[in-house]
Amino acid sequence: MPLAVRSNPDLVLDDPSFRHYWFPLARADALADGPVARTLLGVELVLWSSAPGIVSAAPDRCPHRDARLSTGWIETCGLVCPYHGWAFGEDGTPSRIPQLPDGSSYPPKATLDTVRAAERYGWVWVCLDEPLHAIPEIPEFDLDGWRTVHEPESAWACTALHLIDNNIDPAHIAYVHRESFGTPERPEVPLPSVTRSPDGLLLGYDIEVEGRHGEPGTTLRSTRNRLANPFLMLNRITYPDGVVHLMVKACTPETAETTRQLQFVLRSDIEADRPADDIRAFDAQVWDEDKAVLEHCWTDYRLDLTENVHLKTDRPSIEYRRWVRRIVEAGHPVAPGDEAS
């Protein structure tokens, strides 16, 4: 069964080049109570887990009478369609068709067209076409001395490209986040360093920001950001006291115009220093502030640099757009390139 895609050829993320990336689509614990529906690059999928650590993904459509499999449930025989009780194993092959006598052979077209799925870092990852790169490594996830703060999934009515662009732009902090950690009284930002490498786009800057609620004065955030791929950001923030806050953010394109964000934080301190609930509450405020702007941006993310006005402080966005354009022109994932000055 061909994958059903809702697309607009004028939008960047409708280009098939991005189908070769691994994308996290859900927190793994979201599958604990049964199958869930998710959309990736316009393809509507069902995700399910038949056993701990085993995840599967397929088009969210039963080949029998078109029911959405995500409205079904899990039994020992596998994913069960709610319409006629057909069941499918982890590889998509039918394990039960109640309307056929025991011992019957099943129609070949009854098998689901599964796509690649894997569980890692507490997320369910999916790749629609042949993956050209592995799921990125995050060494700190398994190291002693680091704690993990898992955050809720969130839906964004903006492109994944705009959301990543926003997160690599220090200049917006003073205005968009004036109620949380920015202030228009200090709109100046340092010129970020940008390096194109085989491991992704590497960005760096040190910026003075407002202290969080209850913390007087300002603090210096030393930010070293790695875009492991155009949709996965590993943002390492080091504070003056030496605490490291590693934000792992995935901006998964549901469609060319909408995004599902997944995020967790790795920290080098302990719960008593900064409770996990405080971190989640602060990030929720920051996301709401970003949404207030991003969800009203135009959805045509421009790769032609002549179509937007740029400043020197926009260097991360410029290099990011160049990278995305290279991917589209190549027709498959490519690294950002050689080092940039």
Automatic annotation (TrEMBL):
<keyword id="KW-0001">2Fe-2S</keyword>
<dbReference type="Pfam" id="PF19112">
    <property type="entry name" value="VanA_C"/>
</dbReference>
<protein>
    <submittedName>
        <fullName>Phenylpropionate dioxygenase-like ring-hydroxylating dioxygenase large terminal subunit</fullName>
    </submittedName>
</protein>
<dbReference type="GO" id="GO:0051537">
    <property type="term" value="F:2 iron, 2 sulfur cluster binding"/>
</dbReference>
<keyword id="KW-0223">Dioxygenase</keyword>
<feature type="domain" description="Rieske">
    <location>
        <begin position="22"/>
        <end position="126"/>
    </location>
</feature>
<dbReference type="Pfam" id="PF00355">
    <property type="entry name" value="Rieske"/>
</dbReference>
<keyword id="KW-0479">Metal-binding</keyword>
<dbReference type="InterPro" id="IPR036922">
    <property type="entry name" value="Rieske_2Fe-2S_sf"/>
</dbReference>
<dbReference type="GO" id="GO:0051213">
    <property type="term" value="F:dioxygenase activity"/>
</dbReference>
<dbReference type="InterPro" id="IPR017941">
    <property type="entry name" value="Rieske_2Fe-2S"/>
</dbReference>
<dbReference type="GO" id="GO:0016705">
    <property type="term" value="F:oxidoreductase activity, acting on paired donors, with incorporation or reduction of molecular oxygen"/>
</dbReference>
<keyword id="KW-0560">Oxidoreductase</keyword>
<dbReference type="GO" id="GO:0046872">
    <property type="term" value="F:metal ion binding"/>
</dbReference>
<dbReference type="InterPro" id="IPR044043">
    <property type="entry name" value="VanA_C_cat"/>
</dbReference>
<dbReference type="InterPro" id="IPR050584">
    <property type="entry name" value="Cholesterol_7-desaturase"/>
</dbReference>
<keyword id="KW-0411">Iron-sulfur</keyword>
<keyword id="KW-0408">Iron</keyword>
<dbReference type="GO" id="GO:0004497">
    <property type="term" value="F:monooxygenase activity"/>
</dbReference>
